[in-house]
Amino acid sequence: MKMKNLLLATVGVAFASSAAIADDMTIVSWGGAYSASQNNAYHKPYMAKNPGVKIINDESSAEAVAKLRAMNEAGNVTWDVVDVVAADAMRLCDEGLAEVINPDTELAKAPDGTSAADDFGELLVSECFIPQIVYSTTFGYRTDKVSTPPTDICAVFDLQKYPGKRALEKRAINNVEWALLCDGVPKDQVYDVLSTPAGVDQALAKLGTIKDQVVWWSSGSETPQLLADGEVVMGSTYNGRLFALIEEQKQPVAMLWDAQVFDLDGWIIPKGLSPERLARAKDYIMFATDTQRLADQAKYISYGPARKSSAPLVGKHAELGIEMAPHMPTDPENAKNTFLYNYEWWADNRDDLDGKFQAWLAK
Amino acid sequence: MSEATSNGPVLTQDGVPLKTSLAKALRREKLRAFLLIAPLLVFILITFVLPIGDMLWRSVENGIVRDTIPHTIESLADWDPASGETPGEATFAALHVDLLEATKEKTHTRLGSRLNYEISGASSMFRKTGRRVKKMKDENFKEQFIKVDKKWGDIEYWRTIKQFGPRYTGGYFLNALDAESTAGGVSFKPEDERIYLFLFQRTIFLSVSIMLSCLLLGYPIAFLLANLPVKTSNILMILVLLPFWTSLLVRTSAWKVLLQQQGVINDILVWVGLVNDAGRLVMINNQTGTIIAMTHILLPFMILPLFSVMKTISPTYVRAAKSMGANDWTAFWRVYFPQTIPGIGAGSILAFILSIGFYITPELVGGTSGIFISNRIAYHISSSLNWGLAAALGVMLLVMVIALFYVYDKIVGIDNVKLG
What we know:
The complex is a heterodimer of chains A (363) and B (420).
Chain A: H1 2-22, E1 24-28, H2 32-49, E2 54-58, H3 64-74, E3 81-85, H4 86-94, H5 103-106, H6 116-120, E4 130-142, E5 166-169, H7 175-181, H8 190-194, H9 197-208, E6 214-217, H10 222-229, E7 234-238, H11 239-248, E8 253-268, H12 275-288, H13 291-297, E9 304-305, E10 338-339, H14 343-362
Parallel strand pairs in A: 1-2, 1-3, 5-6, 5-7, 8-10
Antiparallel strand pairs in A: 3-8, 4-7, 4-8, 4-9
Helix pairs in contact in A: 2-13, 3-4, 7-9
Chain B: H1 3-7, H2 18-58, H3 63-68, H4 70-75, H5 89-105, H6 108-116, H7 122-132, H8 141-148, H9 155-163, H10 171-176, E1 179-182, E2 185-188, H11 196-227, H12 230-241, H13 248-259, H14 264-272, H15 287-311, H16 315-323, H17 328-356, H18 360-365, H19 373-382, H20 387-411
C-alpha cells in the first residue's frame, strides 16, 4: 500500500514537472538592449495574457543557423521561436530548417483591415520569415575629431579630409557596395558591376586605399566602444547601437545616415516542433507581430517597425522621453539616400565573394 | 603424495585443475579492471572518438546530390562535359521528375546551397526553379528550364553537378588546399582566392613564435621558482597560477585596454615622451597583439613542467662542475641545461599544441594579420555552414599536429618529455 502510494506520488511529480516543461517556451534573440526591448514589448504582455506560459530567453541568435542545423540533425529541437536577420532566415528556409508561414492566416491583420501580406509588403523576403524591425548599417563619427561634419558616405574613403582610423565590418557585405558607390558606380548598377570579376577587383581596390587605416569588427558592439575610446574617427555599425551611444551614453558622436543599408530582422519558427509547441509558437508570432506590438518595441530601441500600419503609432522613448521617430532609420529625413540590399544576389555570391574578401584581408 | 598429483595436472583443494582455477581468477581480475576503466572508456568513445570520426566522415561525405536528384545523376552518366554541349532533353526530363519530388520535401534548396559552395548562382537557380517546377508542361523540358533560369543552359553548372554526383568527394579537401578541379584537371585557384595554405603557414609561424616567447620568458621564472626557498617560491607560484583562475575573456579584454592606441601603454609612452601623440604604437589588431596576449595566456603551461623538472635536479651536479673548474656559464650550459631538456620539451609541446588550435584570443586581438586557421574553421561552421570544408580543414590541422608530433619524436624523442 505504502509502495503504491509512493509510486503514484512519483508518477504525479513526474507528470507535473513534464507539464511545467511543456509550458516553457524558449525564445532566441540577440541579447542586450535588443532582447530587453522584446521582453518589454512582446514577452511580458504575452505572458500576462497566457498565465500558463513561461518564456525563457536564449541569447544565441548570432549562431542560430549553425545551432538549428545541429539540433535538427540530432532530432531534438529545443527552441520555439528564433530571432534572425533576413539573410539567415532565407538560408534556414533553404535548408528546410524553418516552418513556412502563411501571412494571410497566421499573421494578424492591420487595425484598418489591411491584410498582413500588404501591411508588411515587400519586406516579406522569405516565406519562412516574419519581419519585426527595419534596422540599418550606417556610420557614426566623432564630432570632436572632424573639422567639418561629413554628410557623404565617401568621407569614409577620404583620408585627406578625415584622417584617422575607421571601423568596418570584417566581411564583404555592405563594404563592397559602399566602395563601388564611392568609386563612381551609379546606385542601380552596383550589383551588376559586382557580378563581374573586374567589379570585385574594383571594389577591393577602392577598399585597399584605406585598408591600413581600418579596424575590422565582427561584433556590433565593437564600433561604439572604439568610437567611445577614440580609437577610430568613424565606424559602421547598426543604427540602434549608435543611438544608445549618442542618446544614452551622451558620447560626442553623430550619425552619418548617407547610403545607410537597410536590413531586416524578424522571427522564424524552427522545423521539428511537436504539434502543441508549433501551435503555441504560431500563437505567439500572431500576437507579437501585430501592429501595436511592433510599435511598442520602438519605445525601447531605435529600430523601425516592419509594418506600415505601426509607423504612426511610434511614440516616445520609455525612459529618455525623447521622440523616437527622428531616430528611426526609416524617418524621411534620415532616409534621403538609402541603399537597397539585394538578398538574392548575396545568397548566390556570398560564398565566392567572401572567400575573395578574406583572402584579400589576410594579405 | 598421491598418484594424481605426480602424474595428472595439479589440482587445487576443491579438485579443479590449478591452471583452470588460476585462469579463472585472472579473468575475474581482468574483468574487474575493465569495469573500473569502462566509464572512462565510454566517455572517451562518446566525447572524443565518435566526434572525430564524424568529422573525418563529413570531410568526404557528399550524398546530398545523389539523394536529391538521383535520376538526373544517372542520366548524366553518359554525358561528357568535354563535348561542349549541355545535356539532352532526357536529362532535363529526369531533372523535372527529381525536382517535383524534391520540392515536396524542400530538399532542392538545400542542394542549391550545397552546390553554391562550388559554383556561385546555384542557390538561386534551384530556389527559382523549385518555385516554377510544378507549373511546367510535360514537353520541351530543356527549353522550359532555361526559360526559368538561363544558368541551366550553362555547361559549367552541369559539369559541377556531374562532378559532385558521387556519394564521396575529395572536393572539400581540394578546397582546403586552395585547389579546384576544373575542365582542365586539378589546379590551384587564382592567386586572389588562395587563403588556406597561407593561413596554415601563418598558424604554424605564430604558434612557434608564441612557444618560443613562452620559453624565453618562462625559463628564468621556472629557474627562480626552483631555486628559491620554499616559502618565497610558493608565493611566487601563486602569481604564476593566478591568471589561471581568471576568465580567458577577461584577460584578453584587459590586453585590449592596455595595448590599443588610446590605451594605457601608449598613454604612458606619450606622457614620458618616448613617442609623440601622432606616432602612437600599433600593438593590437595585428600579429603583435596575438603574440603578446597568447604568450601571457600560455605561459603557465610552459612554467609548470619546467619548474617540476628543475625541482628534481640536484644542486650537487652544478657544485661538482664548479669544483672541477667550470665557470658559471659552463656549469649552467654543460651541466644544468641538458637536464632541463625534458621539461622544455613538455612545455613546448603543450604551448605549441594549445596555441595551434586557439580561437577566441586571435579573434579578439588578432585583427586581420593575426588570425589563425581555427578562425576560418569557426567561420565555416557558424556562418557559411560549409561543414564539409570546415571538417576538411580540421582534418588537415589534426594531421599536421600528428606529423609535427612524429617529427618531434624522431628528433628529441617522446620518452624525453617529462611533466615532473
